[in-house]
Specification:
- By secondary structure, this protein is mostly beta strands.
- The protein has one helix and six strands; from the N terminus they run βββαβββ.
- The chain has one domain: Folate-binding superfamily (Folate-binding fold), CATH 3.30.2270.10.
Amino acid sequence: MLLIPCPWCGPRAEPEFSYGGEPVIRPGPAESVTDADWADYLYMRSNEKGAHRENWCHTNGCGQWFTLTRDTVTHAILSAEKP
């Protein structure tokens, strides 16, 4: 189990959190977005090996979203930042 450092509450156990995925930028404006751009936004992720930025929510705590940098190989947490 990971010990995740919430930027507002401090270190807490992983079951208190929800994974929100990789931070992605929504394409726009809507009238100029192609089907391929929309499909990339919805389904394509980098799935990197090593240091990776992820969105997490402290659902069973303060309810705040934050960005966590985590090594996907070792699960070492490198940083936790407020958005």
